[in-house]
Amino acid sequence: MKGALTRFRVMAYVVGVFLLLLVVAMVLKYAADMGQMMKVVGPIHGFLYAIYLVFSVDLALKLRWSIKGTALVLLAGTVPFLSFWAERKVVEKTAQGVPL
């Protein structure tokens, strides 16, 4: 379980950082007509988000999370800064032995 938690934590941070980069890229694309960054960051974030989903579901199955808790953690990778918060909550609840 510790390995699954570590994989989830790493991917939560990586996806969070790339989501913030994606927001910057979108602003540059639409406000400054500079879409080059979006062409690079968009697919990378999508690929990393897919890995985040796999690791999150793996952890959810091992810790027997509820469907609602699992869905909320999965969606956390789509809202800027939320994956960082979700990662903290998951670690906190796991340390307490409380399922999501």
UniProtKB/TrEMBL annotation:
It is a multi-pass membrane protein. The chain crosses the membrane at residues 12-32, 44-61, 68-86. Pfam families: DUF3817. Residues 5-90 form the DUF3817 domain. The keyword Cell membrane applies. The keyword RNA-binding does not apply. It is found in: Cell membrane. Keywords: Cell membrane, Membrane, Transmembrane, Transmembrane helix. PANTHER family: MEMBRANE PROTEIN, MEMBRANE PROTEIN-RELATED. This is DUF3817 domain-containing protein. The lineage of its organism: Bacteria, Bacillati, Actinomycetota, Actinomycetes, Pseudonocardiales.
